[in-house]
Amino acid sequence: MSVAKNIEISSTSPSSFEDAIEKGIARAASTINNVSGAWIKDQKINISDGRATEYQVVMIITFVLDDSNRDDDDDNGGRSGGRGKSAGKGKKK
């Protein structure tokens, strides 16, 4: 079973919405592992002197949570705040 998380980010570009999207995804992927999708929530154009000067997008970025440490947390004797698989498991008396 995989679990995903969503975060909202904003990205801008002086040239286009597409460029703002690409820059936002690239930046998110450089600091977040397992980015798997994006939803464009909103778009905005800043205008100066009757011309578009900046393109802004608000995106919801989806990433799958990493399970690589999950087994380690489960075998630590319940030190994970009592929420691991081993929490509450002990030898029967």
Walk me through this protein's architecture:
The structure is a single chain. By secondary structure, the chain is an alpha+beta fold. It has a single domain, classed as Dodecin subunit-like (2-Layer Sandwich). The chain has two helices and three strands. The chain has a three-stranded antiparallel beta sheet with strand order 1-3-2, covered by helices on one side. The model is unreliable at 73-93 (pLDDT under 50).
Write the layout of secondary structure elements.
Blueprint: E1 4-13, H1 17-31, E2 35-48, E3 51-64, H2 70-74
Pfam family, one: Dodecin
Region (Disordered): 67-93
InterPro entries: Dodecin, Dodecin-like, Dodecin-like_sf
Separate helix tally: 2
Gross morphology = elongated
> Which stretches are low in confidence, meaning pLDDT under 50 for 5 or more residues running?
73-93
Class derived from helix and strand content: alpha+beta
Highest CATH level, the class: Alpha Beta
> How far is it from the N-terminal to the C-terminal residue, by CA?
33 Å
For CATH, the homologous superfamily is named as Flavin-binding protein dodecin
Query: How much of the polypeptide forms β-strand, as a percent range?
Result: 35-45%
Q: What's the order of the H and E elements?
A: EHEEH
The major β-sheet equals: 3 strands, antiparallel
The CATH topology turns out to be Dodecin subunit-like
- Can you name the CATH architecture? 2-Layer Sandwich
Largest beta sheet: what is the strand line-up? Answer: 1-3-2
Our count of domains comes out at 1
> Rg to the nearest angstrom?
21 Å
What percent of the residues sit in helical stretches (DSSP H or I)?
10-25%
Number of strands: 3
- Please tell me the overall pLDDT: 81
